[in-house]
Design goal:
It is a single chain. By secondary structure, the protein is of the alpha+beta class. The strands form 2 sheets. It has a 4-stranded mixed sheet, covered by helices on one side. Strands 5-6 form a two-stranded antiparallel ribbon. Helix 1 packs across helix 10 and helix 4 packs parallel to helix 10.
Length: 284
């Protein structure tokens, strides 16, 4: 999605030339874009927005992307937001090694819209089993800053703003509840059951050629496996995932810092003791 010039309040970026990406190492959607750049062999300029320090809610960054989300692309002064739409845009600009094949474009767009609709479900599992509540929650002052920022998306009030604000307020107050985990984990259980059937007779999710749908679901699968979803129970999915996971284009962008690995292990132990780990709450 390309923003209007009137949406941009941090006007210095309007003069930037080339490809610039605002991203964060641990952001799943940022990982998706970095892998996309690797596969497409696109040269780009890196601008890290530290989500742990809540830099995405700074006035400077909200002046670039009023949603306060990464990744955000600046291409020759034009701002593009939302990872799947950024990839669609760049796949059209850089036509070599197409990841959005024309003959499957409608089906792929439908699949990506479905994958994107599960973003909050992925967040729930992340903030329950990988990132501790103390690190993941947003301070009320930063939530207020986002709520009060009068940014626009293509000249209109952002229809997604209230949903985002509600998520962060609930997370600050309550963390992620068992009921939310059950709801979200069951969605992914059903999805991977279907994927396992699909991958029984074909190499990739859309057939025998790798597409952006595989890229999107690889990143989510990597995150979900770390959060405790037992991907290994789905043998065809595990084979598909392992093949991608061993590709250098993928694995170098998904590296997990040692402190996060340690934290995730501690969180797993605590939840196991409490019998609130994802496989305790949902039977796969």
């Amino acid at each position: 999605m390309k923003l209007d010039r009137s949406d941009i309040k941090t006007e210095e970026i309007l003069d930037w030339k080339g490809i610039h990406l605002f991203h964060f190492s641990g952001s799943a959607c940022s990982q998706k874009l970095r892998i996309f750049f690797n596969i497409k062999k696109i040269n780009w300029n890196s601008h890290v927005i530290n989500l742990i320090k809540q830099e995405q809610f700074s006035e400077w960054f909200l002046g670039i992307n009023p949603r306060g989300l990464v990744p955000t692309l600046v291409h020759d002064g034009d701002v593009h937001i939302e990872s799947n739409e950024i990839m669609a845009y760049l796949d059209d600009v850089y036509k070599d090694n197409k990841l959005f094949p024309i003959d499957l474009i409608d089906e792929i767009n439908k699949d990506l819209a479905f994958e994107d609709s599960l973003h909050h479900d992925l967040r729930r599992l992340t903030f329950r089993y990988i990132i501790p509540h103390a690190l993941g929650k947003k301070n009320p002052s930063t939530i207020d800053a986002k709520e009060q920022f009068e940014g626009t998306i293509q000249g209109k009030a952002d229809e997604n703003k209230s949903k985002e604000i509600l998520f962060w307020k609930n997370h600050y107050k309550n963390g992620i509840t068992d009921d939310e985990i059950v709801e979200s984990a069951n969605k992914f259980k059903n999805i991977y059951e279907d994927f396992d059937k699909t991958l029984k007779n074909q190499k990739y999710l859309k057939g025998d050629k790798f597409t952006v749908v595989d890229l999107a679901w690889y990143v989510s699968t990597k995150r979900l496996a770390m959060a405790g979803i037992p991907i290994e129970k789905y043998k065809n999915v595990q084979k598909w995932f392992s093949n991608l996971d061993n590709d250098e284009n993928f694995k170098k962008e998904i590296k997990i810092d040692i402190p996060i690995k340690i934290i995730a292990v501690v969180i797993k132990i605590i939840n196991k003791i409490k019998r609130t780990y994802v496989t305790d709450l949902v039977k796969f």
